[in-house]
Amino acid sequence: MLNGVKESFDDKAKKSIASFQEQLKKIRTGRASAAILDGVMVDYYGTPTPIDQTASISIPEARLILIQPWDKTTIKNIEKAIQKAELGFNPSNDGNVIRIVIPPLTEETRLELVKNAKAVGEQARVSIRNLRRDSNESLKKYLKDRAITEDQEKQGLDDIQKSTDNYIKEINSILEKKEKEILEI
Q1: CA dihedral 92, 94, 99, 100 (to 10 degrees)
Q2: What is the mean pLDDT of residues 96-123?
Q3: 3 state SS of 101
Q4: 36-47: per-residue pLDDT in tens?
Q5: Residues of 137-146 as b/e, b for ≥16 C-beta within 10 angstroms?
Q6: What contacts 79, CB < 8 A, 6 or more positions away?
Q7: Is the pLDDT higher at 30 or at 147?
Q8: Between 2-25 and 150-183, two packed helices, what is the crossing angle to 10 degrees?
Q9: Burial of 3 (0-12, 13-18, 19+ CB in 10 A)
Q10: What's the pTM value of the predicted model, to 2 decimals?
Q11: 79 in Cβ contact with 91 (< 8 Å)
């Protein structure tokens, strides 16, 4: 039972961290990154399709994203999808490829992006703490039902707390890297 509670906690915590990392990818930095376009859905012959399944995305320069549609007839739809996603970019289309020039970030914009990243980080930490609370409640219920001993409960609570501390440390480390990336000029 103790192992089941710990495994469940670890699985959910890892999913929370993966989700946190995905959310951070969407917060842009001053550099071009294909991850910025994750989540952009293109109307591809009437079906909403992820942009990376309709075109090749490359980063030839630090501030340039090049999107080359596999089917030239969809170039307008791809351009519309990027504009509709409100990413703060103005794509330019020459009939063959779409170019997105990443504008340099102002100091004010950088600070706002760091603030957003910190908010996402706090949500992730709260998520981990909620998982800890749920796991601790499960252990207390097992003790109440006499399925485990007090020593086992104490050991389980300690293990969950150590894991919680490690996951929070990991979140802080990931967040710190993202902040440095955003504040880089």
Answers
A1: 0
A2: 89
A3: strand
A4: 888 889 988 888
A5: ebbeebbeee
A6: 91, 93, 98
A7: 147
A8: 10
A9: exposed
A10: 0.74
A11: yes
Which of 16, 23, 26, 21 lies closest to 124 in space, CA to CA?
16
Let me know how long the chain is.
185
- Conformation bin of residue 69: beta by default, left when phi > 0, alpha when psi is -120 to 50: beta
| Residue in 51, 13, 1 with CA at minimum distance from that of residue 162 | 13
- Quick check: 165 and 125 in contact, CB under 8 A? no
Q: Residue type at 83?
A: Q
Q: How sure is the predictor about 185, in pLDDT bands with cuts at 50, 70 and 90?
A: low
Q: What is the pLDDT of residue 3?
A: 80
Contact 174, 23 (CB under 8 A): no
